[in-house]
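Q: Predict the assembly, please.
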Amino acid sequence: MLPMNLELDFRSGIPIYIQLVERIKEMLAAGKLKPGDQLPTVRALALDLRVNFNTVARAYRLLDESGVISTQQGRGTYILEMPPPEVTENIRQKALEALTQRYLTDAARLGVSPEDLTKILQDQAADWQPGIDDNSN
Amino acid sequence: MLPMNLELDFRSGIPIYIQLVERIKEMLAAGKLKPGDQLPTVRALALDLRVNFNTVARAYRLLDESGVISTQQGRGTYILEMPPPEVTENIRQKALEALTQRYLTDAARLGVSPEDLTKILQDQAADWQPGIDDNSN
DNA sequence: ATCAAAATTGTATCATTGTCGCATTGTATT
DNA sequence: AATACAATGCGACAATGATACAATTTTGAT
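A: Predicted assembly structure:
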């Protein structure tokens, strides 16, 4: 089962199940999830995220209804083989927007203004290489 | 749930919700409340104090806005973790770097170069306001 | 290989918790 | 007295949690 490095913001006021839907769509658009992949069970993911499994189930149901995943009682939930083609690019755009949105709000919580943030990004983007995901803290 | 030995003065002319904010801040300063502690539910505390639960909710909302507690619909309200000021700045820097790092790599996975990304950020930062995490899809 | 019991998975229903909009009350200002 | 405004109460609502249930797979005995 996939580890699902997912992070939630319990203070944002955005419902957990909405956050879950967004994150999973992002991961799909980003290729972190591929068609056929099995998602964690509602209970496993809920345990991992310290959330009630009904909340995860709700997110899965929404994703199922939008045709992104397939949830099957007694079996599990899987990424669909045909992530709606016309949707894919749409998802990519939205994912990118969401990514930026999250970046802005997270930074805002750290007390950084959008203006300063663009500078910071420029600096850090200058010496950036595809491989360096250090996270050494 | 904590017993919250709280006493209110209904004749003082000071609004209940203000008194509540003060008492809770005091208890926190006095160590009677610790980070992570769950406060009584708005209804439980309201019942205990013979007050309407909206009044308690109002006090909780103020405390939430000042970053003292975190209220989460459907879950409860909790005292926030508050790292000492010295470490805060250091943590802040590291968090900011990590944030930017994640932004860059995630975007790269979406096929966006650092250069394009800075443009995107600038655009989206232009019309950005603290509250708007729309999620309208 | 078969079949039934147990375990695992998602589903459904209801309780609990905080939020929101508006009504009511009380107090001060004119 | 009339009006305005802040504080509080009321009722409906959305998000999350708890519990029981149904569908499917897995396991184990025969």
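Chain A touches chain B through 47 residues (CB under 8 Å). The longest strand of chain A covers residues 69-72.
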